[in-house]
Description:
Elements: E1 6-10, H1 15-26, E2 30-35, H2 43-50, E3 57-60, H3 66-74, E4 81-84, H4 99-127, E5 132-136, H5 149-169, E6 175-181, H6 187-195, H7 197-206, H8 215-226, E7 237-240
Parallel strand pairs: 1-2, 1-4, 2-3, 4-5, 5-6, 6-7
Helix pairs in contact: 1-2, 1-8, 3-4, 4-5, 6-7
Nicotinamide-adenine-dinucleotide is lined by residues 10-11, 13-17, 35-37, 62-64, 85-88, 108, 112, 136, 138, 181, 183-184, 186-189.
Amino acid sequence: xxxxxxxxxxxxxxxxxxxxxxxxxxxxxxxxxxxxxxxxxxxxxxxxxxxxxxxxxxxxxxxxxxxxxxxxxxxxxxxxxxxxxxxxxxxxxxxxxxxxxxxxxxxxxxxxxxxxxxxxxxxxxxxxxxxxxxxxxxxxxxxxxxxxxxxxxxxxxxxxxxxxxxxxxxxxxxxxxxxxxxxxxxxxxxxxxxxxxxxxxxxxxxxxxxxxxxxxxxxxxxxxxxxxxxxxxxxxxxxxxxxxxxxxxxx
Length: 251
Ligand SMILES: NC(=O)c1ccc[n+]([C@@H]2O[C@H](COP(=O)([O-])OP(=O)(O)OC[C@H]3O[C@@H](n4cnc5c(N)ncnc54)[C@H](O)[C@@H]3O)[C@@H](O)[C@H]2O)c1
C-alpha cells in the first residue's frame, strides 16, 4: 500500500514512534527514523523496523534544531510522509511550574513540529510531492488534565498548527492531519503510570473502555492517515482515547 514512499518518523526510538515506524515499514514504506537517542541505544528499536524495511535509516536529529532538521531533509532523496511525533511530558502543578519546564515543552512539542513540518512541506512543494503530514497530538489538547499545563498548551498549539497547515497546503495537494492518543500504557504515560501513584489513581477512573490503549492501536491510525483511504481528509484530529474525552470526570 505504501510501497515506493519514504516516511520520516520523529521520536522513532520511543514507544509510539517505533510502532508507527514498524507499521509504515510493514506496509512497504522506506522509513527514516529520527530521535535524539544515540544510535547505539536505539539498536533494538531500529532492529524492530529493520524486520520490515532492511534499508531503514536512523539519524540523531533534535527537532528543536532547525538547521539540523533542514540538513537531514535535504539529505533525503524524497519525502512523502512525515510523522511529527517526538514529544515530552514532565508534570508540575501550575503554581510550581518553572519557566524552563514551560519553555522545554513548547520548544520540543510545538516548535519541534513547526520545524519538521515546515521543512518537509517546503521540500514536498519543491518536488511536487502530494505528501502526507501526520502529527501526534493528545486527547488533553482540549482538556485541562491536572499538573501538565505546559504539555496541554503545547498540544493545543499542535491542533491549530494542523489546521493552519492543512488550509495553506491543500492547494499543493499536501494533506495534514493528527492522531490524538488517549492514555497509552507505554512511552510518556507508561512511565507516569509506573512512577506517579497519583497519576495511576486518576487514570483508573477516566477511561470508559476500561484500559489504556496500545502503541499499535495509535500506529494503525497513522497508517490510515498515510493511506489512499484518506485522500479526502485534511485538517482532522483523529482521537483514539477509549472515550476519555466524552465525559466529565473527577480526577
Ligand atoms: N504515551 C501516551 O499515553 C501518549 C498519549 C498522548 C500523546 N502522546 C504523544 O505521543 C508522542 C510519543 O510519545 P511516547 O509516549 O511514545 O513517548 P516516548 O518517550 O516513548 O517517545 C518520545 C520520543 O521522542 C524523543 N524526543 C524527545 N525530545 C526530542 C527532540 N528534541 N528531538 C527528537 N526526538 C526527541 C525521545 O527521545 C523519545 O524517544 C508524544 O508526542 C506524546 O506527547 C503519548
